[in-house]
Amino acid sequence: MAKLRWGMIGGGEGSQIGPAHRLGAGLDGHFEFTAGALDHRPDAGRDYGKRLGLAEDRAYGDWREMLAGEKGRDDRIDLVTVATPNATHFEITKAFLEAGFHVLCEKPMTMTVEEGEEIVRLTKSTGRICAVNYGYTGYSLVRHMRAMVARGDLGRIRLVKAEFAHGHHADAADADNPRVRWRYDPAQAGVSAQFADCGIHALHMASFVIGQEVDRMSADTVSCIESRVLEDDAMLNLRFDGGTVGRLWTSSIALGNQHGLSIQVFGEKGGLRWAQEQPNQLYYMPLGQRLQVIERGEANLSPEADRTSRVTIGHAEGMPLAFANIYADLAEAIRAEKDGRAMDPAANLYPRAEDGLRSMAAVFAVAQSGKAQGAWVDARPPMFRT
Ligand code: NAI
Question: Where is the GFO/IDH/MocA-like oxidoreductase domain (predicted)?
Answer without folding.
Answer: 142-273
